[in-house]
Write a structure and sequence with these properties.
By secondary structure, the protein is an alpha+beta fold. It is built from three helices and five strands, in the order H-H-E-E-E-H-E-E. The protein is elongated and about 75 Å long. Bound molecules: guanosine-5'-monophosphate (5GP) and zinc ion. Zinc ion binds next to helix 2.
């Protein structure tokens, strides 16, 4: 323990309290990093402030029908917390992205997409202006059903 001397129990207790406070501060900061954007239409849908035709909901994800469908089945899966686009995701979002992708086939079947391989569905994530993204809250399009489709 050298220069600082051996910690006595009181010091150890305050060190633990300090670490707990530090941890709480870090957790708050990362949640605020992408929590909710007051000007974002999909944050408003996730919060229930704008109505949507819900397909699925859990603590971190929401799926709802696209307001302007291109095909017999067209819904969007979004994280409830605001992430502006796929370009904004971090390695820590891998589990969230994995959950969205594994949910897609389940919800596609539930919403009436025909089974693979004759049926199937398209999964699309428009990212940025050149990627065709219009709503800047990460969303995964799931599109399917009998053709022809509008797009
Ligand atoms: P993007 O081009 O950003 O990938 O797609 C955004 C999608 O969101 C579009 O297909 C559009 O029809 C859909 N959309 C935009 N505003 C609303 C809305 O208020 N409610 C629903 N359900 N869909 C929306
Ligand atoms: Zn948002």
């Amino acid at each position: 323990w050298g220069y600082w001397g051996a910690p006595n129990p009181a010091n150890r207790r305050s060190l633990l309290i300090f670490l707990k406070i530090l941890n709480a501060m870090i957790e708050t900061a990362s949640a605020v990093g992408h929590a909710h954007d007051d000007n974002c239409i999909f944050c408003k849908i996730a919060a229930g402030h704008i109505p949507s035709r819900k397909v699925y909901e859990d603590e971190e994800l929401l799926a709802f029908h696209d307001i302007a469908p291109w095909a017999p089945v067209h819904f969007l899966i979004i994280p409830k917390r605001h992430i502006a686009s796929l370009a904004h995701t971090q390695p820590a979002d891998a589990a969230l992205l994995g959950r969205i992708l594994t949910l897609a086939p389940q919800l596609a079947a539930q919403e009436g997409c025909n089974p693979y391989p004759a049926g199937g569905f398209r999964v699309q994530i428009n990212t940025g202006e050149e990627g065709g993204q219009e709503v800047h809250h990460l969303h995964v399009h799931v599109i399917g059903g009998p053709r022809p489709w509008k797009k």
